[in-house]
Write a structure and sequence with these properties.
- The chain is an alpha+beta fold and 395 residues long.
- 53% of the residues lie in helices and 19% in strands.
- The protein has a 6-stranded mixed β-barrel with strand order 2-4-9-6-8-7.
- Strand 2 and strand 3 form a beta hairpin.
- Helix 2 runs antiparallel to helix 9, helix 2 runs parallel beside helix 11 and helix 9 packs parallel to helix 13.
- The longest helix has 41 residues.
- It is elongated, with a radius of gyration of 32 Å.
- The chain starts with a helix and ends with a helix.
């Protein structure tokens, strides 16, 4: 076998500790990016999921001016003819003053949001009914479901208590009515209707003097990716009405805008972490070049060219990049799998909505590989600058 090939093999058979250190530096950089993606993108997707499930649906239809006056049954039937649509249901929002008398003492009156729902249709488009922790969902026009935060402010109100609501109707008149608490809702992270009261939509219509009117139509899709198609089809079918249709991203834009900026910043920090890993590879490669001075001198003395030395150390960087990218990706996928299967939460927060973004996973691995190779260029160049006579002093 050619002596130069044997020397090249010796140069690539570096100290295990240094090689492992370089590989781990690349792997940890990849793992940090995966962890950031799982936590912050998972939290963002979880917020979108819960806003869609509790408040807005996949598509939300409102009237640009005020309330929808067209029959809600007609609109619901129109939507449910579309193959992509799972169900549709009416909603109406308002605000009310609420109070309760507990043990002969009147709890101080305060304002809360009020949501009117169709108790039969709403569970098909919303998961609010699944968050009932005590009692049952809205049963009749005289029943009301309150959020856990509202129950706490009412002195620990429970199922069976009688509450009084005061709502100002369309004519500016105060309407007062008593309701029986049929249930209490509580959602992880407070993303549901924990601070609201939920009542029968017809009872709310009566109090607002808006008989036959609707605040919004919530549409649940079999495939949320078709939301834009359904929205556009609806607007094209009702061009002369003042309808406004929005996807979940559009409906919840105010809530999501700031969070997206935070995700971008965290991703930037992750990229800087990967750059730090590249600097670690440079440092380790420089150490390896120093430890291989003898071999470099021998190869140059027997006729090896500078490009031969350069290729050897670049190959070494490729090996480090490949091993680091493979190990880091494996650790990242392991963490992602764990977070997805356990529905990871943090201190009672909402369960993360974890997904596998294969494009991002591949992009991260490829980036880490090329950064490791790029980090090997300068040490390789330094190795080629060694003169045979100077390097042979270490023989």
């Amino acid at each position: 076998m050619d002596y130069r090939i044997q020397l090249a093999k010796r140069m690539l058979s570096n100290k295990k500790g240094s090689l492992i250190g370089a590989v781990l530096a690349v792997s940890i950089g990849i793992l940090v990016i995966h962890v950031n993606f799982v936590i912050f993108q998972g939290l963002y997707d979880a917020i979108v999921r819960d806003l869609s499930s509790y408040r807005f649906g996949d598509v939300r239809v409102t009237d640009e001016e005020s309330f929808i006056t067209k029959s809600d049954i007609y609109l619901i039937n129109w939507f449910e003819r579309i193959p992509y649509v799972q169900a549709a249901a009416p909603r109406m929002d308002s605000s009310a003053s609420i109070n309760v008398t507990k043990n002969g003492r009147l709890i101080e009156e305060f304002k809360i949001p009020v949501v009117g729902v169709d108790p039969f249709r709403d569970p098909r488009v919303s998961t609010v009914s699944d968050t009932v922790v005590d009692g049952q969902y809205v049963l009749s026009r005289n029943s009301i479901v309150i959020g856990s935060s509202v129950a706490e402010k009412l002195g620990g109100s429970k199922v069976g208590d009688s509450l009084q609501l005061k709502i100002t109707n369309r004519y500016g008149e105060d309407k007062v009515k008593r309701f029986l608490v049929s249930g209490i809702v509580k959602s992880p992270g407070g993303q549901g209707l924990d601070t609201s009261a939920i009542m029968h939509i017809d009872a709310l219509r009566d109090m607002l003097d808006r008989d036959g009117e609707t605040g919004a139509i919530l549409v649940k899709l079999n495939d949320p990716k078709k939301a834009t198609d359904v929205k556009n089809l609806f607007l094209q079918s009702f061009p002369n009405n003042d309808f406004e249709a929005e996807t979940i991203e559009e409906s919840a834009e105010d809530a999501l805008r700031g969070f997206r900026s935070g995700i971008a910043m965290i991703n930037m920090i992750g990229l800087f972490g990967m750059m730090s890993s590249a600097f670690a590879v440079v440092t380790i490669q420089m150490m390896l070049v120093s430890s291989k001075t003898r071999e470099v001198g021998v190869m140059r003395a027997i006729g090896a060219k500078r490009k031969d030395i350069l290729v050897i150390f670049i190959v070494q960087g490729m090996i480090i990049g490949a091993l680091g990218a493979g190990l880091g990706t494996a650790m990242g996928l392991g963490y992602t799998f764990y977070a997805k299967e356990t529905r990871m939460t943090f201190a009672g927060s909402i369960p993360l909505q974890v997904s596998y973004d294969w494009a991002k996973i591949s992009q991260t691995a490829i980036m880490a590989f090329f950064l490791a190779v790029a980090a090997s260029i300068y040490p390789s160049y330094k190795a080629t600058k060694l003169q045979p006579v100077e390097a042979m002093r270490y023989v």
